[in-house]
Amino acid sequence: MSLTVTQCRFNVRRLLGDLNNGAYAINNEQLTAILVRQAQMHRGLALPSESTENVTINNTGGNSFPLATATVNRITKVVRSSDDFMLTKRSREEIDALTSGTLPTGPPTDYAVNESSPGGPITALLLYPAPVSADTLVVTRSTALAAAYADATELEGSEYLMRAIECATASEAALRMGQEARDKIKLSVEVIQSWTSDRVELMLLEKNRKRRLTAAPYVVQTVA
After folding, report:
1. Which residue has the higher pLDDT, 58 or 49?
2. H helices, E strands: number in the chain
3. Residues 88, 113: Cα–Cα separation, whole Å
4. Taken in order 88, 92, 98, 99, is the CA torsion positive or negative?
5. Long-range CB contacts (< 8 A, 24+ apart) of 10-16?
6. Is the dihedral of CA 74, 80, 84, 85 positive or negative?
7. Using one digit for the tens of pLDDT, what is the confidence trace for 42-53?
8. Which residues contact 16 (CB under 8 A, 6 or more apart)?
9. Which of 113, 135, 192, 211 is the most exposed place for a label (fewest CB within 10 A)?
């Protein structure tokens, strides 16, 4: 069977109990990155190459912090190193609206990218709220997810494999959420653990299915 990225993502959101397009916890771009990586891992494909950069932030009175090197590579994750909190990606317009007037301050929870030109190299991160203390943001970039996996891209595999990928994606996405976000969608630790167990069982079923397909047929030998 084959499902598009959009269909798989919808199935994962249904597992998470969050059909509000990530309003509570994790946005579509982050979920797609997790989904594609889990698909590659479970199908034994090469993982996209990733690199990280540490960006130092402090209470300079602003919310824009430059990257050491401008990059066109897609930013897939930004995490506060002090508490491993993953920031939510927003559009430039959303961050501008949130920070208009009096600039809110506090530990950053959201970010947007500042490009030198539309679609051009990313030069800085725009944060909301503006930081009030020194911290480090760990920025992860991927060189393989930018154009290869649009919403209409089809992920192929047996039903066992596809369901295993979705369970694994839901588990990873849930663990990246904060406790408050999980509470809002009534997502308990027991449910996350059940997805992990389901993934293991589904992968065993997939291995057995492949083994049956490749098994040599038994032929009755005639004794002369």
Report:
1. 58
2. 6, 10
3. 12
4. positive
5. 11/166, 12/166, 12/169, 12/170, 12/173, 15/166, 15/167, 15/170, 15/195, 16/170, 16/173, 16/174, 16/185, 16/187
6. negative
7. 877 655 567 888
8. 25, 170, 173, 174, 185, 187
9. 211
pTM of the predicted model as reported, rounded to 2 decimal places: 0.55
Reply yes or no on whether the pLDDT at 223 is more than 70: no
User: Is pLDDT at 4 greater than 60 in this prediction?
Assistant: yes
What is the end-to-end Cα distance of the chain in Å, rounded? 46
Indicate if the alpha-carbon torsion angle 34, 27, 146, 149 is positive or negative. Answer: positive
> What pLDDT score was predicted for residue 45?
66
Give residue 165's pLDDT band: very low, low, confident or very high (50, 70, 90): very high
